Amino acid sequence: MKVIRLDYPHSYTSSDFPPLVMALGFFDGVHLGHQKVINQAKEMASLHNQKSAVMTFDPHPSVVLGKSQERVQYITPVEDKIKLIEDLNVEYLFIVHFTKEFSQLLPEEFVKNYLVHLHVKHAVAGFDFTYGKFGKGNMTTLPIHSEGFFDVTVVPKLEKNNQKISSTSIRQSIQTGEIVKANQLLGRYFTTKGTVIHGKKRGRTIGYPTANISTDRDYFLPQIGIYIVKVFVNNIWKQGVCSVGYNPTFHNPEGKQLSLEVYLLDFEQEIYGELVTIEWHKRIRDEKKFNGIEQLKAEIQNDVEKTKEYFSSLNEET
């Protein structure tokens, strides 16, 4: 897949590219609805002997246009998004640098500069895609603004269990700890990446050494609690129990930094400094404050048993 980053203004013309079928959207999560849009573009490209392409934007428009100073967090930060789109066997990925200047483009200017000038012959997007200044361009105006240079396909709303599949609903599910639901809407397991860092090393003193994970602040993180996970480390997937929280048994949660700690089953290697991927499967309980170490150890062992049972049942299903 060829990745092309576009600033405003850009100097590309249609002669720089073959005829393209372009899927348009922000695509945070690259969830089942996004996959439907992208796969529709691929099918069109194959049918007309053209090249498949995706256009996305970075950062999120709210970073540039929003009044809030809070950092925007993503289901899939841009590097994860690139990998997921590549896995869908798309031939071109255009990443538009979203800036104040770019946001001021009139809808028809966006169409001319970012679709016609990139040799788009067919545009595919979800029913709620908007473009141009104040988002005034939409899937009703796109065929008008195309002026016959390209065709347009509108992909209708996709639902699962009577709920619209959307990045917003997936974020909400992650934030409330409903990981199973989030995974169903994503069409895969939710993942985050991070680096193993040194912690207090209390886990090893009670027989459960944990890997402390420093995660990029761009990621959404699940609600505080204990989760069944898999971790990709040293080129293998290992089962684990992950704690998202403040270690209330050892700390006063107020004013403490949120930590991510994973106990890996049947794993004893030193992995400090390693980049790992956490694959989130299921939330099993709230974070608790225990009266003593023995009570904590018993609860961790219970978490481990639940994790083993979970993966054993998964293996039986497959």
TrEMBL record:
Domain of life: Bacteria
Domain Riboflavin kinase: from-to ranges: 185-312
Annotated InterPro entries: Cyt_trans-like, FAD_synthase, Riboflavin_kinase, Riboflavin_kinase_bac, Riboflavin_kinase_bac/euk, Riboflavin_kinase_dom_sf, Rossmann-like_a/b/a_fold
Transmembrane segments: none
Pathway given in the UniProt record: Cofactor biosynthesis; FAD biosynthesis; FAD from FMN: step 1/1; Cofactor biosynthesis; FMN biosynthesis; FMN from riboflavin (ATP route): step 1/1
Keyword annotations of the record: ATP-binding, FAD, Flavoprotein, FMN, Kinase, Multifunctional enzyme, Nucleotide-binding, Nucleotidyltransferase, Transferase
Catalysis performed (reactions): FMN + ATP + H(+) = FAD + diphosphate; riboflavin + ATP = FMN + ADP + H(+)
Pfam families: FAD_syn, Flavokinase
SMART domains, per the entry: Flavokinase
KW Flavoprotein (keyword) present: yes
EC number: 2.7.1.26, 2.7.7.2
Family statement: Belongs to the ribF family.
Protein's name according to its UniProt entry: Riboflavin biosynthesis protein
Organism: Lederbergia ruris
